[in-house]
UniProtKB/TrEMBL annotation:
Cofactor(s) required, per the database record: pyridoxal 5'-phosphate
Record-linked NCBIfam families: selA
Family: Belongs to the SelA family.
Pfam families: SelA
Pathway(s) per entry: Aminoacyl-tRNA biosynthesis; selenocysteinyl-tRNA(Sec) biosynthesis; selenocysteinyl-tRNA(Sec) from L-seryl-tRNA(Sec) (bacterial route): step 1/1
Location(s) in or outside the cell: Cytoplasm
GO-annotated molecular function: L-seryl-tRNA(Sec) selenium transferase activity
GO cellular component, as recorded: cytoplasm
The protein's name in its UniProt record: L-seryl-tRNA(Sec) selenium transferase
Length: 463
């Protein structure tokens, strides 16, 4: 490619890797980082700047930026983080914190060998599903269960097994996109089935499904519209009616629940989210949901339903490609055990502690943070405790928000964006919401033992 002189000159002015590598400032920022990593970071950064210049953008090499990259790389980047965003199940922040019993199981199976695929009863080769299948059946009322990498994988496996080469009928109002490019039509295409859309965006009737049934129909699919709601003049067909229709024509009904609650949140004053056992009781042949949304275990996709269909899925070649490792099973087994005793799960699972935290508790914790920083940072920032709204996130309870309390920080000498950046670069990183000229730390998701850390981060960022 021919470049104009301006761009040529700017490219030639870029420093050489070796020169930077031997530079005093660079050495200092890199600390004890391995020389190979230092060179890689320098090279990657120069490459980025070079591409920007070639593409005609106004990029420049900056020493500060390189130093920052080296400083950040000195510590592992996947570490604990503090969630001040007020989004409980934030995919970017790894969704839910795990219960203590699950953490212990993680250490136990990672430190030692484990009976992952050996039956303890007869010593023969067993299956990794043995650890969670009885629990899942007990908790949902289903005949059989299977676990794969995530709920997206679950949908793919179900459709490939049941309906490959056949038609699957789904309502237009349920053709959802979840973040990270999960789109129902794309997953259906990948599974090899043919999507037949029925109804309109806001209204789908039972007769729309019935009129679309042909000898080619392989399944009826219902998708929980977990991250949005259609309101106003709407109609969705209840699962019971879809099941009755499926029975009439001997067509299986699949229910993709997304978050899939194992207990009824509305009993605790939270908005209602579909409960897995209710879908099974309504007669759905297969139900799938995430392991790391309202169950609060590690990433997994859980499939429960009729034994005959689940057995077929277990034998499908995709299952091997989508299977989870021992760490996932260990976490899932212990987390599911908690749900056997509803009082216990509500008491011990951090997810439920966060969801059920009272406004007075949040108020108290916000005050503790203020007490820890206000004197030290007098004149540097203004602080205020404010009522706010938090979200469940992870595609759960889309339109419902939770009462919350935030500490709002207005820095005096720096911008809010700069404050947010400094908080992010603190170790552990702290994430807060920037709303206009305020930086909000939401106490729905900041936990009691994190207040001192947040205080220290604020002091370092502002003092
Ligand atoms: C979240 C969600 C998915 C994707 O689940 P992952 O476990 O994140 O892959 C699929 N379907 C619905 C309805 C969801 O809410």
């Amino acid at each position: 490619m021919l470049l104009d002189n301006g761009r040529q000159a700017r490219l030639q002015q870029l420093p050489a890797v070796e020169r930077l590598f031997n530079d005093e400032r660079v050495r200092k920022a890199a600390g004890t980082l391995h020389p190979r990593l230092i060179k890689r970071i320098i090279r990657d950064y120069l490459h980025e700047v070079r591409s920007e210049i070639i593409n005609g953008r106004d990029a420049q090499f900056s020493f500060e930026e390189l130093e920052l990259r080296l400083l950040v790389a000195r510590k592992p980047t996947l570490t604990r983080a503090i969630n001040g965003l007020g989004v409980v199940l934030h995919t970017g922040l790894g969704r839910a914190p795990l219960p203590k019993v699950a953490q212990e199981a993680l250490i136990d199976v990672s430190e030692h060998f484990s009976a992952l695929e050996i039956s303890l009863l007869d010593g023969r080769r067993g299956s990794r599903y043995q650890h969670v299948e009885p629990l899942l059946c007990e908790l949902t009322g289903a005949e059989a269960a299977l676990v794969v990498n995530n709920n997206c994988a679950a949908t793919l496996l179900i459709l490939s097994t049941i309906a490959k080469g056949r038609e699957v009928i789904v309502s237009r109002g349920q053709l959802i996109e979840i973040g990270g490019s999960f789109r129902i039509p794309d997953v259906m295409l990948q599974s090899g089935c043919r999507m037949v859309e029925v109804g309109t965006t806001n209204r789908t009737h039972l007769r729309d499904y019935e009129n679309a049934i042909t000898s080619e129909t392989g399944a009826l699919l219902r998708v929980h519209t977990s991250n949005y709601r259609i309101i106003g003049f709407t109609k969705e067909v209840p699962l019971e009616e879809l099941v009755a229709l499926g029975r009439k024509y001997s067509i299986p009904v699949i229910d993709d629940l997304g978050s899939g609650a194992l207990l009824d949140l509305s009993r605790y004053g939270l908005p209602k989210e579909p409960v897995v056992s209710e879908s099974i009781a309504a007669g759905a042949d297969v139900v799938c949901f995430s392991g790391d949304k309202l169950i609060g275990a590690g990433q997994a996709g859980i499939i429960v339903g009729k034994r005959e269909l689940i057995s077929k899925m277990k034998k499908h070649p995709l299952t091997r490609a989508l299977r989870c490792d021992k760490l996932t099973y260990a976490v899932l087994e212990r987390t599911l055990e908690l749900f056997l005793d509803e009082e216990r799960v509500v008491r011990e699972h951090p997810l439920f502690q966060i969801l059920l935290k009272s406004p007075s508790e949040m108020q108290k914790q916000a005050r503790q943070l203020l007490n820890a920083v206000q004197k030290r940072l007098a004149g540097r920032a203004r602080f205020e405790i404010k009522p706010t709204r938090a979200e469940v996130g992870g595609g759960s309870l889309a339109t419902e928000s939770l009462e919350s309390v935030a500490v709002a920080v207005k820095p005096v000498d720096i911008s809010v964006d700069e404050l947010a950046r400094r908080m992010r670069l603190f170790r552990p990183p702290v994430f807060g919401r920037v709303v206009q000229d305020e930086y909000l730390l939401d106490f729905r998701t900041i936990r009691a033992d994190e207040i001192a850390i947040v205080a220290e981060a604020l002091i370092q960022a502002l003092a």
